[in-house]
Amino acid sequence: MKILGINDGDDLPEMKIIGDDRKVYGGARGIVFLCRKIWWAWPIWALAHLPLTMNIMDYVYKWVAKNRHRAVVCEI
Length: 76
Fold this sequence. Notes:
Layout: E1 16-18, E2 24-26, H1 28-37, H2 42-47, H3 53-66
Antiparallel strand pairs: 1-2
């Protein structure tokens, strides 16, 4: 919590990941960081290095995070 600079009970607007180098990665960059660590997700990491792809991933991540409260849960 101290590394991330957050207090107990704070609402985080995005996912935060602490890397091996103790750097903090958030949002879409956090997802890309994780994709490099998972063998089957490596193509997403590679795509993130193409021009404009990271901008698109940031936009999609922020849109999903902003609208996550609208998620529909279906019960059978």
